[in-house]
Specification:
Elements lengths: L5 H38 L2 E5 L5 H12 L10 E3 L1 H12 L13 E4 L8 H11 L5 E5 L3 H42 L1 H9 L4 H36 L3 H5 L2 H35 L1
Antiparallel strand pairs: 1-3, 1-4, 2-3
Helix pairs in contact: 1-5, 1-7, 1-9, 5-9, 7-9
């Protein structure tokens, strides 16, 4: 096999690497999408608005009642007076908390576990809690989950489309790389065919080269994604809660399989076609 094709092999390796990075990102988003949605569910506040002038004993009683409902997260049931409610809502709605008159009542906020978070369960809790003395109403919003799902679908689709575009580019570069290499080695190939060499023997160095390019691409992707994942985990932010190592490993395995299919399988097809044509 000719050694004069290192530049084209480099381009083939780099294009494959770009494809694999994009595919890895798509796989990570796809595999973690359910986990992301579940975390959003557990962080959506459900608010119970209280009537004015409610004694502290009745407030504590309501907290106890709410904490016993199915699916309510432990230690998530918190009482907020009017001032605290205004501060929280101002932060969530991105509005000023400096107002002439506080429009909010005292509230009790709580969260549900991901398994218990459903429209039916919330409505059931709403029906029960609004029968209790001192409760003005229960309020929640379900748009956040749909918003996150919608954005995840859009981002995943965008990455997938971009990855497919680069797949086409990478396959084209691999095709040209192999074609150039084969034509530069045409004399050696003809000689081997004349002495009766099997196709498997002729293909061996090219398949080995393709295997090494796939291995290099996979290693680079694992290194890049691995460093990024490790950094995100150790920053202890919300993304650290989302990332699951089993999904990262699965994404690496699937990416490696795709790399070897792109390089080795494509190379094998191109060489087989070339050898059939040259034997005529």
């Amino acid at each position: 096999m000719s050694k004069n094709n290192k530049p084209t092999q480099f381009y083939a390796t780099m294009s494959t690497t770009i494809v694999l990075v994009l595919i890895s990102l798509f796989l990570l988003l796809f595999l973690h999408s359910t986990n992301i949605t579940n975390i959003v569910k557990e962080n959506i506040n459900i608010l119970v608005e209280l009537e004015d002038g409610l004694p502290s004993g009745e407030i504590e009683n309501l907290r106890t009642i709410i904490s016993k409902y199915d699916g309510v997260k432990a230690n998530s049931v918190i009482y907020l007076d009017k001032a605290a409610a205004l501060a929280m809502m101002s932060k969530e709605l991105n509005i000023s908390d400096v107002v002439s008159e506080n429009p909010f009542h005292d509230i009790i906020k709580f969260n549900l576990t991901q398994q218990a978070y459903s429209e039916a369960n919330i409505i059931n809790i709403k029906t029960q809690i609004e029968l209790e003395k001192g409760v003005a109403g229960l309020y929640y919003e379900n748009e956040s989950v749909d918003f996150v799902k919608g954005n995840l679908d859009k981002v995943s689709l965008g990455i997938l489309v971009l990855a497919l575009c680069f797949v086409i580019l990478a396959v084209a570069i691999i095709f040209n790389t192999i074609q150039l290499t084969l034509y530069s080695d045409i004399k050696e190939i003809k000689t081997m065919q004349m002495v009766g060499a099997e196709n498997s023997f002729i293909k061996k160095p090219y398949l080995k080269s393709a295997f090494m390019m796939a291995l290099k691409s996979t290693f680079i992707v694992v290194f890049i994604i691995g460093i990024a994942t490790t950094y995100l985990i150790y920053t202890q932010n919300i993304i650290a809660e989302i990332i699951q190592i089993k999904y990262v490993i699965l994404a690496f395995v699937l990416t490696a399989i795709i790399a070897f299919i792109m390089q080795v399988y494509t190379t094998n097809l191109i060489i087989n076609r070339f050898l059939r044509r040259e034997r005529r």
